[in-house]
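can u do me a favor
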């Protein structure tokens, strides 16, 4: 097990608040300096002065969301939420600052080529216009209030989910854990009163829904999981939708979906809808066949069964894998101890991109379980990563990459963080992962590489993941592909006790079995995407979010709705991604196309370096469409995705 001796952060909430406020004041100074710039300044000088605001905010803007979601000290989390609001208020006021806009618009670009200066200024003007700077004063005041209100509503929505976990009490002791793996049973001991407690968080939810032999308990547990943040978030969601719509219309858009997609690859809500419908159509046949197979499996237990419920899907998928593919998910776990997987992920990244990772034991961390690594190239530290990978109470419940410091040419090196909830190695427990968690590790590391490989940009405003949001899941889903390769898996997946590498025959079965269910999974993803879009593409006044959800389930999904469940209340993406849940699938289409360039030679350094140079290394220098064409040598298309889906 990795044991860093690195020190812990000692900064208090008050100190952090003071630091954050000082940085926002400094950024206000940068705004003043930019406005005071003489008109004789060149476009290049003006761009540098404009970018100073982003350079200043970069000193703290990454830590704010990270601490609000993952800092173990509640005072620090609260402070981070205050700063989140203050920072957003500053950014909103700036986006509506007419004087600032006019000064940017006055920059003479006539002598500029197609370089970063022009890109930065044009993007800035576009953001100003889209943000409502052209509106009259009364409207700008209204927009400002709505934006600030939205920040608070979003925080409330997230907080309710973060704090909305529930305890599920199994009253009949170990009999309630029938089918669960031994380490799960060991981690959930029978309490003095004879009961066992499991939580609704993902680390318990995923294995329980897959392996529990008790249909009655899975049903009750699933019901409890669908009650997270209920009823609080039903009201908060309504407010979130209504305020978003009001803001979008104030900005001159028909609805929020059109506003939020206007500067994305999709361009408008209608294109997003057409995309979702296209994917649903492409995956329909496969999803239908899979559902029939799962139902046939259920009929073996219940001859009268006519339908398959959501709480049964994970369990029956496991059963089909065992009966049709002779594969048991439990059999691979001994080869997937957390530390081995981490080493495997890093070693793939190192081999592909020619970098190395070195444990850093001097940099301060926010929690003792956080590991810090430096990324080196040609002996030089080019980036730093923080891995906060194991569950804690009050910590972010999913897996995500958090920006910490965005790198820039001549500026700081990039620093990024992964916040996940993977099994933690402990005395006598190697922290065995599910294969699904391994692919998640690769996924999040793909985001991290995207972030850490940018930073060659001259401007802060074009560095980092400064690309269209519907492109951001390309690098993550692309990197997942490496987890599926038998040779790569064998290179790190060795048995925690014997050290023997994972048998090739087991990997072959794993691949065949894990491919199973992708029709239904695609279908489920498109249900989420359509639900999110359908909430945001209309005037939500009078909308019943529950009714809409049930209606869409009927249209799209193969499982009937269960009464008195409200998945939308804990559907965290409804804030943040808002209408853009389709992003994952949109990006998957592109990432499948990208992966076709690696076919036959996964460790091809030349292709990997081209990908790094043309895609991840470019930050927001060009549109995502151009990134795609530069790497592929043509426009991206659906071919690779279609053959994957229906293979
Ligand atoms: Zn992702």
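np, heres the sequence
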């Amino acid at each position: 097990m990795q044991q860093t001796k690195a020190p812990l952060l000692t900064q208090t909430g008050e100190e952090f608040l003071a630091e954050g406020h000082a940085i926002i004041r400094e950024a206000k100074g940068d705004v003043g300096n930019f406005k005071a710039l003489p008109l004789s300044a060149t476009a290049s000088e003006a761009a540098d002065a404009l970018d100073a605001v982003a350079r200043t905010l970069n000193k703290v803007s990454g830590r704010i969301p990270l601490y609000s979601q993952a800092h173990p000290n509640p005072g620090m989390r609260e402070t981070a939420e205050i700063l989140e609001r203050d920072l957003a208020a500053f950014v909103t006021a700036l986006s509506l600052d007419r004087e600032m806009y006019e000064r940017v618009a006055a920059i003479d670009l006539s002598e500029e080529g197609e370089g970063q200066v022009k890109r930065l200024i044009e993007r800035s003007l576009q953001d100003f216009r889209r943000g409502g700077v052209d509106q009259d004063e009364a409207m700008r005041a209204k927009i400002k209030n709505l934006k600030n209100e939205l920040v608070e509503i979003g925080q409330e929505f997230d907080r309710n989910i973060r704090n909305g976990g529930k305890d599920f009490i199994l009253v009949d002791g170990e009999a309630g854990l029938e089918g669960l793996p031994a380490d799960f049973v060991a981690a959930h001991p029978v309490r003095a009163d004879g009961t066992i407690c499991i939580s609704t968080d993902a680390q318990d939810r995923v294995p329980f829904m897959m392996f529990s032999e008790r249909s009655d308990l899975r049903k009750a547990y699933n019901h409890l999981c669908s009650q997270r943040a209920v009823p609080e978030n039903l009201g908060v969601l309504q407010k979130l939708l209504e305020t978003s719509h009001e803001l979008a219309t104030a900005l001159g858009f028909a609805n929020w979906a059109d506003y939020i997609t206007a500067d994305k690859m999709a361009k408008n809500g209608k294109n997003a809808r057409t995309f979702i419908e296209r994917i649903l159509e492409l995956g329909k046949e496969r999803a239908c066949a899979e559902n029939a197979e799962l139902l046939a499996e259920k009929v073996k237990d219940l001859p009268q069964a006519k339908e398959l419920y959501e709480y049964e899907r994970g369990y029956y998928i496991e059963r089909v894998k065992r009966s049709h593919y002779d594969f048991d998910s439990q059999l691979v776990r001994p080869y997937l101890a957390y530390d081995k997987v981490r080493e495997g992920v890093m070693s793939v990244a190192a081999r592909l991109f020619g970098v190395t990772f070195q444990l850093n034991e001097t940099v301060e961390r926010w929690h003792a379980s956080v590991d810090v690594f430096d990324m080196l190239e040609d002996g030089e530290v080019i980036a730093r990563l923080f891995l906060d990978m194991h569950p804690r109470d009050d910590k972010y419940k999913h897996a995500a990459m958090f920006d910490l410091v965005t790198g820039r040419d001549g500026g700081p090196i990039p620093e990024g963080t992964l916040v996940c909830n993977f099994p933690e190695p402990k005395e006598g427990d190697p922290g065995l992962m599910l294969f699904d968690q391994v692919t998640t590790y690769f996924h999040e590391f793909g985001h991290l590489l995207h972030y850490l490989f940018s930073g060659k940009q001259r401007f802060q405003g074009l560095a980092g993941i400064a690309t269209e949001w519907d492109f951001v899941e390309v690098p993550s889903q692309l990197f997942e592909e490496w987890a599926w390769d038998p040779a790569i898996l064998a290179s790190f997946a060795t048995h925690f006790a014997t050290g023997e590498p994972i048998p090739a025959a087991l990997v072959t079965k794993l691949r065949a079995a894990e491919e199973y269910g992708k029709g239904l999974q695609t279908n489920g993803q498109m249900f989420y995407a359509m639900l999110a879009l359908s909430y945001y593409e209309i005037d939500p006044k009078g909308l019943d979010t529950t009714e809409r959800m049930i209606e869409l389930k009927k249209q799209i999904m193969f499982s009937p709705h269960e009464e008195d469940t409200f998945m939308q209340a804990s559907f965290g993406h409804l804030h943040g991604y808002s209408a853009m849940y389709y992003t994952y699938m949109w990006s998957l289409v592109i990432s499948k196309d990208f992966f076709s360039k690696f076919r036959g030679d996964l460790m091809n350094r030349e292709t990997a370096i081209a990908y790094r140079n043309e895609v991840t290394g470019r930050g927001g220098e060009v549109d995502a469409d151009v990134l795609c064409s530069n790497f592929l040598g043509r426009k991206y298309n659906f071919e690779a995705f279609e053959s994957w889906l229906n293979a």
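Residues 164-215 form one domain. hope that helps!!
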